[in-house]
Design a protein that fits this description.
alpha/beta; five-stranded parallel sheet; 19 helices; elongated; disordered N terminus
Amino acid sequence: MTTLNGHTNLQTADAILASVGAADALAELHQRPPVWETPAPLGQRGELPSFPVHALPSWVAEHVSAVAEETQTPLDLAGCVGLAALSTAAGGRAVVNVRGSWTEPVNLFVLVAMPPGSRKSAVFRAMTTPLMHAEKTLLDRIGPQITEAEVARRLAADAAEKAARTASSAHGEAAAEAIAEAQSAALTVESIKVPVKPRLIADDITPETAASLLIEQGGRLAVLSAEGGIFATLAGRYSGTPNLDLFLKGHAGDPLIIDRRGRTERVDHAALTMGLAVQPEIIADIAGMPGFRGKGLLGRILYSLPKSNVGYRRIDPPPVPEHVATRYDTNLQQLTIAMHDWDDPARLVLSTDAADIFTEHRRRTETRLRPHSGDLGHITDWAGKFDGAVMRLAGLLHLAAHIDDAWRSPIPTDTVTAAITLGEYFTAHALATFDAMGADPDLEAARTVHAWLQRTRTARFTVRELFTALPRSRFRKVTELEAPLDLLEQLGWIRREPEPPRTGPGRRPSPAYAVHPHLHQHGS
């Protein structure tokens, strides 16, 4: 009896009622207003998918599920932080050879938006503590070498200083020999390199300090935080000038060069991981930060907007089983330590069947990028990196599934399929995120019309009346109202009235719409 738009199928009802001679009932049905369901919020594209935890390797998936249960948080939070943890373990130490010269590093930028009181910090601790353990193990392993090198360098420096003093006071034939000895001693000091203390993670850090630390650590670093303060820092909170270079180069794997007094430091392939859990309002804030979208930072982030379950949580959920936590801790540490010393990145390749699956996926993506018909046409800055993100995810999943020897076997079809599943999850959430940022012009136009309807408390209007009332700077032609009106009707805010029969010559009446009473009763 009811179509998707809530209209009553009167023809079907007429036939049924007429067949039983129910003339009075038929007349009443025609007079009864059609059912009008509650409208959907502007920008809502239906229920966002929950995190596909089954796409993760079992030791990660089990821990994600157990942490989400213990903390009573959505799977999305632990799942996304888990991906950031894998990126921290392997980022900068492996790349995926997709095809030809196309390679993708395996580091990710991941952002989860959740309201205050969502236990973000507890989840971060549970998912990233093994990285701290691995960092300590690496430090314990290299600690004696650091001590030995520091002592040797200090003794060499003392000897060089003594030789320099001798050379400065020498005369005649002895001077040349003393100077040569002083130079040799100075070169000895420079030749003694003190190993750097391993550092995997930074939190609230300036771009300048992060760049120095990344270079010091051989080209990789992770910024992991249960807050979003790094965005304000990037926007120039302290310096007054936005500084996005490290994050742009660190995602792409580009060279990073820092000029200092007397020396230049560089890495050929910077690898930065970012894993953040922020409050939802940060999403709107970063959309307006200078250069964030124009320079491509927002297009590099995998977004997650899980539905909050605050107010519906269990009070005494079961803790993470010890064997699940131990397995996760052991495997993540093992992956981190195994990848840490790879100076030349491990190169991962796709199996033939996996490459075919990915090629078909790319064909589907390409049609989605079409400007007027594709659902990703208005976020090409993000969607243009979508396929690359899928390959990064595939590389991480493969490394996590084969901790000791992932580079010895090609990435199989099931791993690429799992990566595509994760990619589709992040695509749905990216669409919702960019809607919240005002990236969809049709949605923004619909919001303009919606605001006018709410402000004027209009119960019925024609397209001509609407066009006359709205600013000409916003809608220059009547046809520009077609898309926003169609969107508002799909969401249930308005309903197009049947066009009355024409009774004579003249201009066709302007289409008329009824406005859902919910708009005036409860606002938006």
